[in-house]
Amino acid sequence: MRARSHEPIVWSLFGAGGVFAALLGTMLVLIIGILVPMGLGFGPDAMHYDSLRSLFGHPLPALGLAVVISLFLFHGAHRIYHTLHDLGIPASKKMMLACYGSAAAGSGVALLLAGMLVVF
Amino acid sequence: MTPAPKTYVRPMNRWWMRHPAYRRYLLREGTSVMVAAYALFLLAGMVCLVLGETAFNLWRGFLQSPVSVIFHLAALAAFAFHAWTWFKVMPLTTPPMRFRGRPVPDRMIFRAALWAWGIASLVLLVLAMRFL
Amino acid sequence: MSQTRTIMIECLRYDPEQDQAPHYRTYEVPFTDEMSVLEGLQYIKDHLDGSLTFRWSCRMAICGSCGCMVNHQPILSCQSFLRDYYPARIRVEPLEHFPIVKDLVIDQSDFLGKLESVTPYLVPAQPLTPEDGPNLQTPRQIEDYLGYAQCINCLLCYAACPQYGLNNAFTGPAALALLARYNADSRDAGQKTRMEVVNAEEGVWGCTLVGLCSEVCPKHVDPARAINRNKINSTQDYFLRFLAPFGRGS
Amino acid sequence: MQVIQSDVVIIGGGGAGLRAAIAVAQEAPGLSVALVSKVVPMRSHTVAAEGGSAGVIHPDDSLDKHFDDTVSGGDWLCEQDVVEYFVGQCTREMIQLEQWGCPWSRRDDGSINVRFFGGMKSPRTWFAADKTGFHILHTLFQTSLQFPAIQRYDEFFCTDLLVEDGRLQGVLALCIATGEPVLFQCKAAVLATGGASRVFGQNTNAGIVTGEGMGMAYAQGVPLRDMEFVQWHPTALPGSGILMTEGCRGEGGILLNKDGHRYLQDYGLGPLDPWPRPRAMELGPRDRLSQAFWHEDQAGRTLQTPHGTAVHLDLRHLGEKKIMERLPMICELARTFAAVDPVTAPIPVRPAVHYTMGGVLCDVHGATPLPGLYAAGECSSVGIHGANRLGSNSLAELLVFGRAAGLSAARHARETPAASAALQAQAESRAAVHLDMLRREGGTRVARLRQRLHEIMEAGVGIVREGPRMAQACEQLAELREQFRAGVALDDRGRAFNTEWLTAIELGHTLQVAEAMAHAALLRQESRGAHMRIDGFEARDDERFLCHSLIHSQGDAPPRVTHSPVTITRSQPRARVYGGAAQNQS
Asked: Please, are residues D319 and D344 in contact by the beta-carbon 8 Å criterion?
């Protein structure tokens, strides 16, 4: 009997992250990093502290942002873990813990922050 | 059995130098570093938002800096390349589909994915213009 | 007869009885337009150096014997033509990621073991004898697996797969494609047995979708598709067993 | 020397060998089977068979028709009792393969589809597109993997059959990877080593089809039968010899000379209309088509190509859809190896050696005169092909007689005591002879000897034959064998994976087989099936030659040829006619 791989857990997270990154990533970066700072299509008040605070005071946007961050992190962690192996750094328990552990930690922080934004 | 013959095993060092497809593959995998970095950048924004207006304005102010523009251009390239390659291999991962009895060709799936990309981007843009 | 030109063929040489490591030797080979790389190698063996060793048989791209690397690209030497490389010299090496037995000959025993491990035969739902007559199977049902059934076991896909090179516990493209072939056959009921191979770390999860295996396949088998579709199946299998822990043992 | 004990040794891992191995494993699970093959089984030449395999299943067809087509196709030189058994077993074997997973081409309702082949009264050819042999071989190989009793020895090159106390008791092989001799001690062996078409230069066969199985049996005193009957397939690519399956014509392809004329109508295969119809024009038998080519060539009505003359095989009228569905590999092969797209242009083709009708003498059970030795497939002469093999009968033969030989060998192994101890000494001395080749200085290169063999055979024992030229070929072959014995120059003196050395051993066998062909041909003073003479023996002569040739080895001396009767049960020889004349007859 061959041992069953637990890869499906991280692979699903990786896949979901990949889909989000592919569908939304480009526009997200474009808006936040280029359009808003350059004022293209957005006024100077765009992404102001108050408007963001009120936007992310609602559970749905806050949770959405946290989920996006979390999935991006897992997507990154998964590929980085495997690519390090490809580049000659052997896959090990420690490496696995480092990659997926930081993604999990980051996700926890994101969820916590989302909660704080909603509650406070 | 007769003793196994002596064989020579070639090393794998710098294997990516052997074929351009390998380098494209590593580049594709490499986009994940930018994806993760961008997640951390957004996370930093969240932290700042929770900490209060002063902290947030620092983050917001950073967006105006040339460093940020360079970072975002790099991220933009990475996300776009990621999206393109992700959609390219998508037909390999989707279960077999048929349309009017014929298998759906890969390029149709790819095109559909590009459309989804466009629509999702547009929706995001409209929402952003409305709410930010 | 078309005009004869001369091409330089640089071959990896390794004699297990003499050499510690491989070296290269270059031969000047006269060739005509219709000469394949295999015929170039045969010319060397017949006329220049009888000790150059390589496998070949059908010379029509169906037996799968003559795979090798030409300029780092895995190819069947019988259906690659010298004219397409001329005037550059070509470098011929044994298939990557396999141990070299001698010159261009690689050790394929690891692959054969993998092939055997995937239950690569039809497992009927109930035993049949010829007296029962042939099963019915429509052309459309055949279409579901015929692509995967085209594999000639030439091993080009393994030579294209860095994951196999980095860790040869990976079951690899051709064997996993064959697994998918039998799973997709309407006459087969062996999916459950094969799922164990799919689900293993060295099963589909050894693949990172480099994708070159499918590009180099001379028979368009598309192992990358076979493997990555099974990642979905394996994932479903992984989570569904929690939903229905009972009743799946039948 | 390493000794491996096995109840049954199967020599050759192609279709016949695998079928035999499975038969033993299924029917006699207690027996151990060693499957010894000089290539990994799926590299065997069965893989290259394209068109299909015969089995009566079409409603218009019957066992009698299959019997008649086979016997008349073989110009009445068939063992009719064996043919009777054969046609009765074919369909069973096709269904068996289906149940093992072979992707036979189907009709829309999911039932088996069959196509016409040359010389058939009804469509009878089961096919898997145009890769039938490939699918059969891989299905058999993969199926064989479920039987732990079958122990494979891939890339072990058999060199000698070992006989002690008048029965076969062992097989000597070289492990190719190490060059070490290995003795397989056994109670029975099945020879399934394929044909010997590489005796000729222009042929459709893989490089491994060198006839050493025939040579091994022949060297042990087992006669070869009907070796003069060599099949030229009418449609191979000039130069490479790559086969354009008969299925091309079965699907409606036509043959044209350089004037665009369907010349077969001038050779007793017409009239043109109505068309298509069975056993006429392009659906005539292979010997007639190849001979017609020779006449066209003599008359200067063939096309010039860089690799000799050719005629056109035209598929264009079938349309792209049908060509791609039924003949996808032909398309690819023509595009790759002839730079011709069959959808838009006719393919230049010419005859090339395709099959050896003759082989190791054996009966319907696969038993040879040597106790313990069985034979199946192209290396054998079980008696179904006669003077010309009907297309589609060879794949069916591998299955039917592979199984039969396997079962017989199993039965024999059960009833036979273990091998004697003297065998090892014999093995050692034979191995020493082979190993000695690695040390000898001087001699002729393998390539030169082989080149010379091809020249002699093509000049002397070609499609069309004449007494003096055959006699000359016999003499030249004797000289060539002498030259071979004087020494083969090897560049490679190592043992590990020394293919040059193995090719030299192979060539020794090939030369003997060639000699058997030439001598048998010389003595057959008539024209029958694939053996066509133009020196006063143009007609079939049932008076003197309704008989098999048996060729007996005389060691280093030229062989002795005797004749033996043909078994005729219900089909008395009559004129062998095709085309319009055939319809008048029936």
From this structure: no
CB D530 within 8 A of CB D230: yes
Q: Is residue B41 part of a domain?
A: yes
8 Å CB contact between D536 and D32: no
Task: Specify the higher pLDDT residue, D551 or D586.
Answer: D551
Q: Which CATH class is domain D234-351?
A: alpha beta
| pLDDT at position B3 | 60
Q: List alpha helices for D100-160, DSSP H.
A: 132-144
Determine contact: C62 vs chain D, CB below 8 A: yes
B117 and A23 within 8 Å at the Cβ level: the answer is yes
Is a pLDDT exceeding 60 seen at residue D467? yes
Model confidence at D277, pLDDT cuts 50, 70, 90, reads confident
Domain region containing B120: 94-132
What are the extents of the domains in chain D? 234-351, 441-565
Tell me, yes or no, if B13 comes closer than 8 A to chain D by beta carbon.
no
Going by pLDDT thresholds of 50, 70 and 90, the confidence category of residue B97 is confident
Domain range D441-565, CATH class: mainly alpha
With contacts defined as CB-CB under 8 Å, which chain D residues touch B6? 496
For D296-300, what is the mean pLDDT?
97
* ipTM reported for the complex, 2 dp: 0.95
C215 vs B9, B21, B29: nearest CB = B21
CA nearest to C235 within chain A: A8
- Nearest residue to D274 (alpha-carbon basis) of D60, D580, D586, D581: D580
Kindly report the CATH number assigned to the domain that includes residue A44.
1.20.1300.10
DSSP state, residue B3: P
A45, A56, A69: best to mutate for the B interface, most B CBs within 10 A = A69
Name, in order, each residue with C-beta under 8 angstroms of C158's C-beta and a sequence gap of 6 or more. Answer: C95, C97, C98, C111, C164, C172, C173, C174, C213
pLDDT in the model for residue C250: 37
Residues 72-91 of A with CB under 8 A from C: 82, 85-86
Asked if the Cβ–Cβ distance from A11 to C235 is below 8 Å, we say: yes
Q: Answer yes or no: is A32 within a domain.
A: yes
* Chain D CB within 8 Å of residue B5 CB: yes
CA angle D35, D38, D40 (to 5 degrees): 70
Q: Which CATH number characterizes residue B8's domain?
A: 1.20.1300.10
Work out how many domains chain B is built from and give that number. 2
Q: CA–CA distance from C55 to each of C67, D49, D192, D500, D583 (Å)?
A: 8, 20, 21, 11, 49
Instruction: Give me the domain span that covers residue A81.
Output: 8-119
In chain C the domains, ranked by start, together with CATH numbers, are: 5-106 (3.10.20.30), 109-243 (1.10.1060.10)
Q: Is B79–A37 a contact, with Cβ atoms under 8 angstroms apart?
A: no
Check whether residue B43 and residue B107 sit in a common domain.
Answer: no
- Given an 8 Å threshold on Cβ–Cβ distance, is C50 in contact with D142? no
| Chain-chain contact of B38 with A29 (C-beta, under 8 angstroms) | yes
Q: How many beta carbons lie within 10 A of that of residue A16, not counting itself?
A: 16
pLDDT in tens, C203-243: 999 999 999 999 999 999 999 999 999 999 999 999 998 88
- Looking at the fold, whether B61 and B102 belong to one and the same domain comes out as no
Give the pair of three-digit tokens for residue C218.
């001379």
Instruction: Share the mean pLDDT of chain D.
Output: 96
- Position A1 in a domain: no
Q: Is residue B11 located within the same domain as residue B67?
A: yes
| B86, part of any domain | no
Identify whether residues B38 and B5 lie together within a single domain.
yes
Q: Residue A70: list chain B partners with CB under 8 A.
A: 39
Catalytic residue annotation of D: 233, 249
Radius of gyration of chain B (CA): 23
Q: Which chains touch A (3 or more CB pairs under 8 A)?
A: B, C
Please give the pLDDT value at position C1. 47
Q: What φ, ψ does residue D540 adopt, rounded to 5°?
A: -75, 145
B61, B112: one domain: no
In the structure, do chain D and chain A come into contact, i.e. share 3 or more CB pairs under 8 Å?
Answer: no
In which residue are the tokens 């180099």 written?
C216
Domain count, chain A: 1
